[in-house]
């Protein structure tokens, strides 16, 4: 019971449930793109052609063949080993094509950021030039390592006389800038060890951009540091690639491959799920944020960072002067406000002019007066934009918090279910419906959360109404399911509860799909209009 | 002896024997951790007649790593008014002190670079984010990620 992460076991359970409950969940992983048979027939227009040529080293036979829903993208997780292998494949390919050493092929590929096509094109044009640029350059008359007499190193200021035998070990790259080997060793070790550099360790000469190649590094640094260097170098394969990204989850060492180009990010939300289980956006690396696209997510996060606390405070503690709209904080007990700016005197309680208050100082019971309600209307208008932001922000934040609370609740419920399993004839499988429900709930709340970000930036038109209808339906379904989870669990009521929760889970999932699918279609059709530019 | 001590000792000997670049003078160089220089700009410039103080601090792995260099704000010195110099703490936004540092550079070449940075200045102006940076800057300019956006001054 405790090990929920056991995928195979989990699959078995799903199968069993399919048979005996006939609700037919999709396997969770199908939502993220690579399940088995996707059972729904609708909205399955594969969008494979959107992702350009899939020419990469991973042998993509196993991806890109599934039929995806229109809001899903193809992706695949890779382990460090498979990344190393993929690099090797690319290197071997280039090495055999140019008939050069594989270490040199590696330098060339790294120099071109693994853009094989560009490398081939340039290399065919002028191999010498490319070699020199990338630092693949051997000149037998000027070896890299050389023991020299009459040499003074420009860095440590030591000269050959200081060395045993009157000769100094020196090193130079293809550029010919020669320094002593000790300095180079210190320099490389500093770069690798302290700065985590690998493929951009350059010649020590100022403004010389020549990159020190793998072989030279191996000749100079300690073996331990060379190992570190190679590890770092492997990582650059992912860093340099536009179709790979490290999974941002803590302690996860996998990388995810996805072929959505940066140019498409204003129309496609590349939500991926690493094999470690972490869902994130391939475009920006943030937690998955469908249906909102990356540019508006960026705007929103920035705005929330800057504004939300301030806005909350302003909303809670201030009112606008009914005459000049200056924001005013009430900092004393008296309701008689005098605006610093326009000197208008007004009442904090009813917002009407103070002159009408006569002698009823320190209290106000004249809420219904027309002058007062007019003043409040003006205030309301000037506050509209602030309130609008808070409306969306509060709902956004609320779903985040609710998702956490749902999880907490589930934690408590789970314990109870375990107890009941021990004291009743219920099997482990039969108490699993809650786990599925909470997972779905969390996922849907995350989707809902980001619909509020999207809604905030949508220009008001008929399409927005459609969007908001979908949002409302999903929200209703989510809250209904959430409510069921709070029902007390009694032994006799379990079958009934299970029935209801399972039905609602399926329904909520359906609503989420509709929401995501409709927004994705909207992006394709260019249906969404924004009230900001990005 | 480590490279840093060897190299700084030699640099110091050279600075003492041949003197630092014209217009600069050693104010303090008692150890191999922190040196101070006075600096003024030769010839016609916006800083004619002014003298500034520079403080160098050397990391253990100098010259593999760049020294920390700031305009002094103490001992009666004030940083120059310059678009790349922060007025409150004397931090300097200069690429060779950051990502373009090369171990081939030395104290003398830094002094020359700073002189030329001042000499080529066209307008006495603080950096655009002077006040904000002054409030939030880390103790050492080396912990700031400067964006070297303008090499002309």
TrEMBL record, chain A:
Q: Quote the protein name from its UniProt record.
A: Uncharacterized protein
* Source organism: Violaceomyces palustris
From TrEMBL, chain B:
Origin: domain of life: Eukaryota
UniProt protein name = UBC-like protein
